[in-house]
Amino acid sequence: TSLLEVRDLHKRYGETEVLKGVSLALERGQSKVVMGPSGTGKSTLLRCINHLNPPDAGTVLLDGEELTARNLNAMRQQIGFVFQDFNLFTHLRALDNVRIGPMKILGTDRKAATELAMTELDRVGLADKADSYPAELSGGQQQRVSIARALAMQPKVILFDEPTSALDPELTGEVVSVMKQLAADGMTMLVVSHELGFARSAADEIVFMDGGHIVEQGPPDRLFTAP
Ligand code: ADP
Ligand code: ADP
């Protein structure tokens, strides 16, 4: 079985059908980048996968198990999400942002959660910023904290929703390089991004969406190389 399998997802907002039957699968350790015109449903696809926006129809399977209303909380813990605008708690230091999930949701004790949080902050290059509040960090650093927060939950897969599009161009590189390292470490990742650098060098496959459908899918060297 695939690690993540999405079958025939449909989603409409009012009159507008945004997802018109989207299916895709991610194998363990695979990274896929979803690209396509603005307004085509890429972000909606990610939000439907973890039921942040519940799909109208279709199935999401994680490790072969279907997400349902009944198991949603347990399943969601295993699906990390990185938002475009970071979504950090502004009144909490980086360390607390990262360890609060393990402590409050997984019941990890404070000492173990702190060690885990420090390990993940170190992995994104921010161990020395553990005591900083989000407002004291650059956008790139805040996004790296939010990646550490996702990692601290030990998810099976991480969904990234335009993780660099709120950043000034000079700050995207540090986030892209953290994401490349995660991909190289074997993290399973589904990334909505226009970042060609990441797509070319770290994605196993590119998924092109247009008009609520997947219109093309394949390895970057095939899709990006002129014939
Ligand atoms: P993309 O990520 O490809 O830019 P989105 O998934 O964000 O596209 O949006 C797809 C369409 O759905 C857009 O027309 C957008 O305006 C609309 N949309 C997204 N979220 C909502 C919502 N919560 N309510 C109503 N319409 C929405
Ligand atoms: P307490 O839990 O005792 O109230 P905090 O956890 O808020 O204290 O603070 C612990 C301090 O130790 C923080 O300043 C944090 O940055 C630091 N710290 C904790 N664990 C590590 C670690 N593994 N490596 C480096 N510094 C750490």
From TrEMBL:
Residues 4-227 form the ABC transporter domain. GO terms for molecular function: ABC-type amino acid transporter activity; ATP binding; ATP hydrolysis activity. It is found in: Cell membrane. It comes from the Bacteria. It is a peripheral membrane protein. Keywords: Amino-acid transport, ATP-binding, Cell membrane, Membrane, Nucleotide-binding, Transport. One of its GO terms (cellular component) is plasma membrane. Belongs to the ABC transporter superfamily. PANTHER family: AMINO ACID IMPORT ATP-BINDING PROTEIN, GLUTAMATE_ASPARTATE IMPORT ATP-BINDING PROTEIN GLTL. This is Amino acid ABC transporter ATP-binding protein. It comes from Kaustia mangrovi. The lineage of its organism: Bacteria, Pseudomonadati, Pseudomonadota, Alphaproteobacteria, Hyphomicrobiales.
